[in-house]
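One-letter codes give the sequence; the fold follows as tokens. An example follows:
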Amino acid sequence: MNTPLHGSAKWLRLVAIGGALAALAGTFAYAGGWLGAPALTPQRIIDTFEAQAGHHPGYRKNHAKGLCVAGRFLSSGQAASLSTARVFSQAEVPVIGRFAIGGANPFAPDTAVPTRSLALDLRSDDGQTWRTGMNNPPVLAVSTAQGFYDQVLANTPDPATGKPDPARQQAFFAAHPETAAWRRWAASYTPSDSFASTAYHSINAFVLVDARGNAQPVRWQLVPQAPFQPLPAQVDDKQFLQHDLQRRLAHGPLRWTLRLTLAEAGDAVDDPAQQWPAERRSIDAGTLQIERVDGPEQGACRDLNFDPLILPSGIKASADPILAARSAAYAVSFDRRSRETLHSGAKP
């Protein structure tokens, strides 16, 4: 097993993070058409989410707990030579966003789930839209359909404890050495005390296309400008991250630098489990400026499907099969919660 973890604390943290991401992995795998087992359908996967977290009509089926925000993207102009996407040359682009935690329970304590996400909708003045969903891990655990299936099985809760079996998870990692990069991240991960001081990653690669048709694969991340502080050991407020964000925004905008990392020949463009070398060239494409909370699930982001394949001209999907799977999974979740809201009159 590559890169073994040492110490019970590290192992327990890895198990917790793995459990939080497992349901997401399972949805990706089937929605992409990868799993052939007839009993494993998108309907069954979503039913499983709800069986574990409770039925919450109208909410997203993963990253269910979140809040809407709004702001602007301020382009630096540095990426305009790499992509014709107007977002990289327009001085200011309006943004609708959503901060969330992982999982299907919209009432979970903010600090109970290690996975954090930030989804954005950017609409440039040429009428085009760019949507991106980012998470705090820089990579996924696995890179193949069989790996996703194995991870789903490994993270099935034990009926006796309600939690994944650590021995079963350890066996999964031993059988899947491609998880090494993710395991290194999980072992060293220390959660920050705020959405504002968390970095968010595209995980998947995309392709920038310039005016001459030249293609440049990239991954991106949002690097927080707020200083890092670790999450307190004891947190009693179930809305800790949301309340913190509201307090910070009451004093002024929050900012992240959009950093594009440029792939070179030989880099794993189509494998989200593989990290790229740290020395790869990067470009700071601009600043995301979040200015206000737009209402927990009541604002403009509530009815947005943050499908990562909604891309403007000048940005294309890579051949990473996970991208198509994410798009399909988001569509299933969006369709179900939309129908639930319509039929029940729910206003999550």
